[in-house]
Design a protein that fits this description.
Helix content is about 55%, strand content about 15%. With about 250 residues, it is of the alpha+beta class. Helix 10 runs antiparallel to helix 11.
Length: about 250
Amino acid sequence: MKRHENILNEFITKYAVLPGIKGIFWGGSSSGHAPDMYSDIDLFVVTDDNVQRKHGLRQMHGIDVEYFVNPLKRIYHQMDMEIKEVHDYWVIKIYAFSKIMYDPENEANRLQKKALEMFELPFSEIDHNRDLQNYFQAYDAYQKFQGLLQLHLQWRVMYYECMKALLNAHCYHNKLPLIPWSKSQRLIIDPQYRQAYHLKRIPESEFCALFIRCFENKEEKIMQRNLNELFKYCIKKSNFNPENFTIIK
């Protein structure tokens, strides 16, 4: 939309004159398709190491503009950590697939090429302690869910907390990209959305079927049965043993 173009030009004009600016990327959903009048704008400002990191929100001509200012050294470090420890491509995807809007010294182009290379890299081996800790969090949420059931108290919050923890644990254990909880249902059921999100892989079909089933039925007894099945499936596939659990810190 013309209004988005005007906002981008105004933002870039303002930031381009500031010292230390190496590049500006336009990311988010509004950069990947024709935005509607309510689409917000996500901008990623790349700087040298002398510029302070920032995260800000501005309303420009009635549209939310969220911007992130990060030095190059930190960006490269974050991308490296995603492969070696985090097991996600979130920062990598930002700079691999966002549009370069300003690049006075070709630094943004070099960053994008590096991000595209790293997007093809496999994750490092899982950390045993972190793996067990992830499953312990899921186990703890499951026990709290069961306790609330026994007390006839509101259990739905812990129901979804347990689902979230199981998703995180299962993805990490199987060296899969972490799936954001807020988008998990749509990412699993919608291949086109996965492609637009650049989600390379999802868990195996049996996990996905159990996971989606937990979302779909709102009858209490069936919800409880579905979560039980998902929990047992994930724990069976893990190295976690609730009867003998120790992590070294």
